């Protein structure tokens, strides 16, 4: 491959240009113009170059016919396609990032790109960062697991936490086109391992924390950490912001070869520290101490974990040279993040929340807070999503049962896994505790059961799906939005006299 700093000539790009960029011989039809690069046959548009990737289940070349029918004009893959002219490369996935970046004129070098990774808090931190950039007078784009939005107000719901490289670089190019000067980008560990963020120049990368998750994919915590740590490399970013409230963060800060800003809610030696933390049931307040002064924040979001997330966002902005007061003002305009301790109010006297906790470390930071704001009963609706780390399911039940009075185990989104096996694993953990444990497979019925009989001082939390608005059973996908369902359940319970109104 030619240097990643080679910017694409404006105007028409031909298949020969692509071959030349990839350092390969020109295929037949080298003069053929290429409109865009696309790695999914279902998304191909007329004139596209189809990047056919070998996958776990299929090979992209299995879908050459579909790509042709949609208008693909050429292929990049690890073997010659049946019908289309092909540029052959040994590792197609590894060229996806550099190729897409080159094709779109290296958009990440025209933006200041701030990345956020970690097991928990990526989405929240990315949204705080985006708002903080706006507060600091910047014009940022946003790429998070729940929204991709540009400065012109257009927004879309993403399919993944972090898009494939072709989509990511195209999105950044759109940001540049729309006048953005920066971007806040959420980076999952899968994205790093699958080369989705290759050829992306980060200004600052932030690490929130690391806890057990995704071991179905990474195998061990050591591997999981190594994938995250591989991001913190001078080849990828100029500097790092690292949360040091867990041992993995402290290790990363110690081993990292970059300028590091450390962040903590407890360690006075950290560069950015939160004190005077006050987590109420309607807002969260704290004082942030930074190398350039202290600032007070009051956020209309819930939970001590949001102190950590907002603090990481503030540290990224301050380490990037922004004024802490302006950044803090921007951060405090975030009026809730969908599906993250999101309150549902339907005239009830008790607290009803939707949350995305789906691993034990997330539960351990969220549930003690929920207990602290609940003088009455704490009722949790939980489950385990299919296709994800089976080893965490028992812990999910056990941690839930440790903090809650009642745990209702239900279906989340089993996918190709057996729903009853998922529930059994969670139930086994929950039954090791003294909580009241119920199994209600149907999620709507589970929510109704959780809400029934609640009165002032009680809290119900529907956990695990957050703002994801579907359930997948095998190949069948059904619309299901926890916030809407919880709202409707509360309305039904109040009108039937089953639960207390305000
Ligand atoms: C590990 C991973 O990234 N897997 C993704 C990957 O699977 P795969 O490589 O095995 O693909 P495959 O299904 O064998 O297909 C091979 C190729 O054919 C292409 N194809 C396939 C079918 C078709 O009709 N046309 C077509 O072109 C695919 O785009 C792919 O390039 O490509 C598939 C098709 O695009 C994805 O569905 C699948 O993501 C799955 C659904 C997924 O969710 N992955 C998870 C692990 C993930 O990436 N999660 C993280 C976040 C996790 C978190 O934050 O909790 C994320 O960033 O979203
Ligand atoms: N800093 C944190 N520490 C521990 N738990 C957290 C933290 N931030 C969020 N959580 C928990 O994790 C859940 C998901 O939060 P968020 O979406 O911000 O994280 P995420 O890393 O983007 O998650 P995912 O990658 O699974 O989408 C929250 O609903 C909350 O229960």
From TrEMBL:
Task: Spell out the Pfam families in the cross-references.
Answer: Mur_ligase (PF01225), Mur_ligase_C (PF02875), Mur_ligase_M (PF08245)
N6-carboxylysine modification sites?
A: 228
The pathway this protein participates in, as annotated, is: Cell wall biogenesis; peptidoglycan biosynthesis
Q: Which UniProt keywords apply?
A: ATP-binding, Cell cycle, Cell division, Cell shape, Cell wall biogenesis/degradation, Cytoplasm, Ligase, Magnesium, Nucleotide-binding, Peptidoglycan synthesis
Q: Where in the cell is it found?
A: Cytoplasm
Write out the residues that bind ATP: 118-124
Cofactors needed by this protein, per the record, are:
Mg(2+)
One molecular function GO term is:
ligase activity
PTM note says:
Carboxylation is probably crucial for Mg(2+) binding and, consequently, for the gamma-phosphate positioning of ATP.
Where in the numbering of this chain does the Mur ligase N-terminal catalytic domain appear? Answer: 40-81
By its UniProt entry, which InterPro entries does this protein fall under? Mur-like_cat_sf, Mur_ligase_C, Mur_ligase_C_dom_sf, Mur_ligase_cen, Mur_ligase_N, MurE/MurF_N, UDP-N-AcMur-Glu-dNH2Pim_ligase
Q: Which residues form the Mur ligase C-terminal domain?
A: 339-466
What Enzyme Commission number(s) apply to this enzyme? 6.3.2.-
Q: Which SUPFAM superfamilies match?
A: MurD-like peptide ligases, catalytic domain, MurD-like peptide ligases, peptide-binding domain, MurE/MurF N-terminal domain
User: Residue ranges of the Mur ligase central domain?
Assistant: 116-316
Primary location group: cytoplasm
Q: Which residues bind UDP-N-acetyl-alpha-D-muramoyl-L-alanyl-D-glutamate?
A: 41, 161-162, 188, 196
Family, as annotated? Belongs to the MurCDEF family. MurE subfamily.
Role of this protein? Catalyzes the addition of an amino acid to the nucleotide precursor UDP-N-acetylmuramoyl-L-alanyl-D-glutamate (UMAG) in the biosynthesis of bacterial cell-wall peptidoglycan.
Q: List the protein's name.
A: UDP-N-acetylmuramyl-tripeptide synthetase
UniProt source species: Rhodococcoides kroppenstedtii
């Amino acid at each position: 491959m030619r240097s990643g700093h080679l910017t694409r000539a404006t105007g028409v790009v031909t298949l020969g240009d692509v071959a030349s960029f990839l350092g390969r011989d020109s295929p037949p039809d080298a003069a053929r113009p290429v409109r865009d690069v696309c790695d999914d046959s279902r998304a191909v548009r007329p004139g596209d170059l189809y990047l056919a990737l070998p996958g776990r289940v299929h090979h992209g070349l299995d879908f050459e016919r579909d790509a042709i029918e949609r208008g693909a004009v050429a292929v990049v893959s690890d073997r010659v396609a049946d019908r289309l002219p092909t540029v052959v490369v040994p590792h197609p996935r590894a060229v996806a990032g550099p190729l897409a970046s080159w094709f779109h004129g290296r958009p990440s070098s025209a933006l200041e790109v701030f990345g956020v990774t970690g097991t928990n808090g990526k989405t929240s931190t990315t949204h705080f960062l985006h708002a903080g950039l706006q507060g600091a007078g910047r014009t940022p784009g946003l790429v998070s697991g729940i929204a991709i939005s540009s400065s012109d107000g257009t927004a879309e719901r993403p399919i993944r936490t972090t898009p494939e490289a072709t989509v990511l670089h195209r999105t950044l190019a759109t940001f540049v086109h729309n006048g953005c000067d920066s971007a806040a980008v959420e980076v999952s560990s899968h994205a790093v391992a699958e080369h989705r963020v290759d050829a992306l120049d980060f200004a600052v990368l932030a690490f929130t924390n690391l806890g057990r998750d995704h071991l179905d994919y990474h195998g061990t915590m050591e591997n999981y950490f190594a994938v995250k740590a591989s991001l913190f490399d001078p080849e990828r970013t100029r500097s790092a912001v690292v949360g040091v409230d867990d041992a993995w963060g402290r290790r990363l800060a110690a081993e990292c070869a970059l300028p590091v800003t450390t962040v903590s809610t407890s360690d006075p030696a950290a560069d950015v520290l939160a004190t005077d933390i006050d987590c109420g049931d309607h807002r969260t307040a704290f004082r942030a101490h930074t190398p350039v002064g202290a600032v007070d924040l009051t956020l209309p979001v819930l939970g001590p974990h949001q102190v950590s997330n907002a603090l990481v966002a503030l540290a990224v902005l301050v380490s990037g040279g922004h004024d802490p007061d302006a950044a803090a003002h921007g951060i405090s305009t975030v009026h809730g993040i969908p599906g993250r301790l999101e309150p549902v109010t339907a005239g009830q006297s008790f607290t009803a929340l939707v949350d995305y906790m789906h691993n034990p470390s997330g539960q351990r930071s969220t549930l003690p807070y929920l207990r602290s704001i609940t003088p009455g009963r704490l009722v949790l609706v939980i489950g385990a999503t299919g296709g994800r780390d089976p080893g965490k399911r028992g812990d999910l039940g056990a941690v839930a049962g440790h903090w809650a009075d009642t745990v209702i185990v239900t279906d989340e989104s089993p996918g190709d896994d057996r729903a009853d096996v998922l529930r059994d694993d969670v139930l086994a953990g929950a039954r090791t505790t003294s909580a009241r444990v119920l199994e209600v497979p149907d999620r709507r019925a589970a929510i109704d059961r959780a809400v029934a009989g609640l009165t002032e001082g009680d809290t119900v939390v529907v956990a695990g799906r957050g703002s994801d608005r579907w359930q997948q059973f095998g190949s069948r996908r059904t619309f299901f939005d926890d916030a809407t369902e919880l709202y409707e359940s509360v309305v039904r319970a109040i009108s039937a006299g089953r639960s207390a109104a305000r």
